[in-house]
From TrEMBL:
BP term (GO), one: tRNA threonylcarbamoyladenosine modification
Entry keywords, A to Z: Acyltransferase, Cytoplasm, Iron, Metal-binding, Transferase, tRNA processing
Lineage summary: Bacteria, Bacillati, Actinomycetota, Actinomycetes, Kitasatosporales
Ranges for domain Gcp-like: 30-317
Annotated compartments: Cytoplasm
Keyword Acyltransferase recorded: yes
Family: Belongs to the KAE1 / TsaD family.
Organism: Streptomyces smaragdinus
Catalytic activity reported: L-threonylcarbamoyladenylate + adenosine(37) in tRNA = N(6)-L-threonylcarbamoyladenosine(37) in tRNA + AMP + H(+)
Name of the featured protein: tRNA N6-adenosine threonylcarbamoyltransferase
SUPFAM superfamilies recorded: Actin-like ATPase domain
InterPro entries: ATPase_NBD (IPR043129), Gcp-like_dom (IPR000905), KAE1/TsaD (IPR017861), Peptidase_M22_CS (IPR017860), TsaD (IPR022450)
Length: 366
């Protein structure tokens, strides 16, 4: 259903990794989602090269903003605010987005909202499934993060329950794809190969699932090593590597741990809704297993469509619109990119009055 025109119209810019994303949202309605990816430029390195990503953002920024405005059929002057990922992410890449957002917001005379990338990944689900229940449990799994977050208020209160202690889930997919000679990024290739394989063929280890292990933390480096060793041993013995079975068994181990811990977090905290976001949420086995385990536990599962799970500007616009709707104050004009912005900081508020005074004093006397 179209939302009324008095819902905030917000443009969101995302440049934390290799996607230049610009989204336009009115309230909970997605009007445009323009993405330019530099992923092909990183493929031959098997991972994202920060300097290459920053340069690509710079080149793609203005055309992507113009494309989003044209797709949405709105004028920049109609916007109620400009939101941008302030962190976490690659410092140089973030800086391009923050600088662009400042320039547009300042030139247009609109408020600027520096928001958290992780909270945006959660908030994007509002564009697909309507308002997020409060609290919502979120499992964020991408190339950069694997986190379990409890979100009583997506604009102001997001609490980390656990995270990976080594590799992110997506990183493990990318590395195992390389071991198996599949393409980059590895997730979609493993997902595809696994369809022809037996998930029970090889029992790979499930990290941090012992009785004394942290209930909500993840570890994928042991799994990664186990898979690599298994493959190496086959090759050393001159035997063929059953790629589909290895892919399916590896994927099974990842999906098993992620869904078990996420459902447990819901139960332990009395939360009835689980959302899964980030690039790995596109994984077909993870989605199917989460669906079954949530049903068994009486938890409602919300997973946005794959295009909204991977990095995009719509998610930033969605959180920006929510900030405006809930009357959260904008960021200051000296907003800076923070590559390690803590997840609890859903947005970067303007400095308090005292701090502004100090800044003025500094300017006066220095
Ligand atoms: O959220 P995203 O686009 O960027 C980051 O913030 O990292 O996530 C990218 C990650 C990559 O590691 C990619 O291999 C993984 O998401 N991915 C998948 C699938 N599609 C993307 N992993 C497993 N199965 C998939 N179908
Ligand atoms: Zn992300």
């Amino acid at each position: 259903m179209p939302e009324s025109r008095d819902q905030p119209l917000v443009l969101g810019i995302e440049t934390s990794c290799d996607e230049t994303g610009v989204g336009i949202v009115r309230g909970h309605t997605l009007l445009a989602d323009a993405v330019a990816s530099s992923v092909d430029e990183h493929a031959r390195f098997g991972g994202v090269v920060p300097e290459v990503a920053s340069r690509a953002h710079l080149e793609a920024m203005v055309p992507t903003i113009e494309r989003a405005l044209a797709d949405a059929g709105v004028k920049a002057s109609d916007l109620d605010g400009v939101a941008v990922t302030a962190g976490p992410g690659l410092a140089g890449a973030l800086l391009v987005g923050v600088s662009a957002a400042k320039a547009y917001a300042y030139a247009l005379g609109k408020p600027l909202y520096g928001v958290n990338h992780l909270a945006s990944h959660i908030c994007v689900d509002q564009l697909e499934h309507g308002p997020l229940p409060e609290p919502t449990m979120a499992l964020l799994v991408s190339g950069g993060h694997s986190s379990l977050l409890l979100a009583p208020d997506i604009t102001a209160d997001v609490r980390p329950l656990g995270a990976t202690i080594d590799d992110a889930a997506g990183e493990a997919f990318d590395k195992i794809a390389r071991v198996l000679g599949l393409g980059f990024p590895g997730g979609p290739f493993i997902d595809k190969a696994a369809r022809e394989g037996d998930p029970a063929a090889i029992r790979f280890p499930r990290g941090l699932t012992g009785p004394r292990d942290a209930a909500y933390d993840f570890s994928f480096s042991g799994l990664k090593t186990a898979v690599a060793r298994w493959v190496e041993a086959r090759r050393a013995a001159g035997e063929p590597v059953p790629v589909a079975d290895v892919a399916a068994s590896f994927q099974e181990a990842v999906a098993d741990v992620l869904t078990k811990k996420a459902v447990r977090a819901c139960k332990d905290n009395g939360v009835g809704h689980l959302m899964i976001g980030g690039g790995v949420a596109a994984n077909s086995r993870l989605r199917a297993m989460a669906q079954r385990r949530c049903e068994d536990a009486g938890v409602v599962l919300r997973v946005p469509r794959p295009g909204l799970c991977t990095d995009n500007g719509a998610m930033v616009a969605a959180l920006g619109a929510e900030m405006v709707a809930r009357g959260r104050g904008p960021s200051a004009w000296d907003l800076s990119a923070d590559s390690s912005l803590p997840v609890e900081e859903t947005h970067v508020p303007a400095h308090d009055h005292v701090h502004e005074e100090e800044l003025r004093k500094d300017n006066l006397y220095s």
